[in-house]
Amino acid sequence: MHSIRTIASLPMAALAAAATTVLAAGPAAASTSTTSVKAVETDFHIALSKSSFKPGKYVFHAVNKGHTTHALMITGPGIKMAMTKDISPGQSTTLAVTLQKGAYDIDCPIPGHKALGMNVNINVGGAATTSGSTPTTSGSGGTSSAGGGGAAF
Ligand SMILES: [Cu+2]
User: Fold this and answer.
1) pLDDT band at 127 (very low <50, low <70, confident <90, very high)
2) Centre of ligand 1 from the C-alpha of residue 1, in Å
3) Domain coverage including residue 62
4) Residues with CB under 5 A from ligand 1 (ion)
5) Deepest in the core among 30, 33, 139, 151, taking most CB within 10 A?
6) Domain count of the fold of the chain
7) Ligand 1 centre from 104 Cα, in Å?
8) Is position 2 within any domain?
């Protein structure tokens, strides 16, 4: 009797620990759907299969259809640096990111490629969360140049 109770209590503790870990991974456990976006990379251009983005989880499928090595890098709010490994011509890989509201930069981190045109700027809009009021933040000097603002060569 006593030993059975002890054994039964162990998996419960393990499950609780696992649940805590999952919850800690994302701020809002409401939407667990992941959106797939194809990013076709050529010499030297990145074509995304999607043009409008809402906050949430995304998996970018980077496909290298060029003749030189490429990679995919995403930077923006909440992302320090999300980057794939080098992708050889004909190869593909995935990059999972969580996008928040704001401007993101999707480019190829191979030196020189961004300047050659492998750079896409996306704007992640709101409306994913159910906040009743429309956040019209226009008016008193609120230009939303969130960062950088310099001329990148
Ligand atoms: Cu490249």
Assistant:
1) low
2) 65
3) 34-128
4) 70, 108, 110, 113, 118
5) 30
6) 1
7) 18
8) no
- 121 located within any domain: yes
Place of tokens 């906040």: 131
Q: In angstroms, what is the span from residue 40 Cα to ligand 1's centroid?
A: 11
Residue 63 has pLDDT above 80, yes or no: yes
Domain-located, residue 18:
no
* Cα 10 to ligand 1 centroid, rounded to whole Å: 50
Rounded Cα–Cα distance for residues 49 and 122 (Å): 12
Residue 139, pLDDT above cutoff 90: no
How far does residue 21's CA lie from ligand 1's centre (Å)?
A: 36
**14-55 pLDDT, tens per residue?**
444 444 444 444 444 445 799 999 999 999 999 999 999 999
Q: What is the Å distance from ligand 1's center to 108 Cα? A: 5
Query: Angle at the Cα of 122 (from 71 to 92), degrees rounded to 5?
Result: 25
